[in-house]
Amino acid sequence: MKRKISILLVLVLIVSLLGACSKNESASADVVKNNEGSSNIQLEDDSGKMIQMDTPAQKIISLYSAHTENLFALGLDTEIIGIGRSDAYPAAVTTKDRFDYRADPEKIIAVEPDLVLIRPFIKKSKPEFVQALENAGINVVSLYPERFEEFPDYIKKLALLTGKEEVAEKMLVKFENDLNTIENITKEMKTKVNVFFESTETEYRTITSDSMASKAIFLAGGNNIANDAEPIRKGTSIASYGEERILEKADQIDVYVSQRGAMNSGGNLHSISIRPGFDTIKAVKEERVYTINEKLVSSPTFRFSKGVVELARMFYPEEMDNLDEFKKEEPLTRAQLAKITVKFKHKGIFAPTSKYYKKERKGHSFGTFKDVTMDDPNFDYIETAVLSSYVEAEKDHFYPEQKVTREEFAKTLYMLTDLKDQDGNASIKDMKQLKNGRIVEIVVENGLMTLKDGKFDPTGTITEKEAVESLEKIKNMK
Description:
Radius of gyration: 27 Å
Distance between the termini: 94 Å
Helix content: 25-40%
Number of helices: 19
Strand order of the largest sheet: 6-5-4-7-8
Shape: globular
Number of strands: 14
């Protein structure tokens, strides 16, 4: 009998320890494998509702752009049968049916999803919509990380619901490593820039100190000059500030960043400079006013790390966009050409909006290159260079590893700057071999590229070092 009691106590202890470990690993999510090996999914969503699913979702409708973006990032596609009306990233969203939580819930019920992802705002503003879906037996899960520190747990919940736990773990490790890399660079900057971040033009609002955008500023090496701002209401990262407080710190603001998104059109240098008194702001006088897409810094997605890099490029352009890595005597590839041009122009990476896809495009559309995937480290540089007309490309192929010809590079130089027509005669002996003879002639006349024995050699390759030297000549022309 004593032996049975001892065994029973040991079993109880083991069960208790396992329960404790489960709670330590995640306060709101757990996976229990039953004897048949299927997943019994249990988690508490951000509305306090307990969610239970026998297997990962196979028919998903996402009604929040961040959810949609993260689902695709986790490797889901065919499982996503519907998205919100304003979702714009990645390009694959253009192939999905769109749904609206403001519309008749029967449209969603009719396609029989086994999971509908929303955020707390939707449940608060349209409770009858959510109730109708739940009454139809649909799992409706409300998720939204209020603070940057909650992002990993949010991703783990998405992964748990969709069977992508292993993928999520790897992506979160990479995400953290990417942020650590940029922080290690920016923390070495001797003089930190003071930044004012405008979230909306209305009352010149900014962001709270615990917001994702504020965290992005910190990681990018900036000092949020409005760190004392208070939220306009409980549960929001939008903070009051106002014209008077901004102008009080006019001579301290080194960089002025205006967020572009659904709540704000994103003010540029001109529109901000003509506001009464704003021409006294140091950043305005020094032309250091920038816009950034809200999806890069204020939305809980893996692109947040890209947003941090973009802010760092705004704060420290000379250090972040230097071309030292391209001074090798090796042939320049088209992928490298794209990266060089974007860095040289200090051009912010392109981020599409829902309006972007509403227009029919004859040429290349963002994210549709068949030979440049989203996980390519040069993806954003390539897309930005092509959409900015710095580098030419076919509609659906870029050929990133192809070596850049001298004539191709001449066309890029011509697009990067306003070259004066010298009305001279470059006397190019192989002019008949050129497809863009006049462009090459202007580039040569301005001293950006040279001839050898009077010939241009249009099909010859150009080295990384030669490309950088030509760009440095452009700088000296200004």
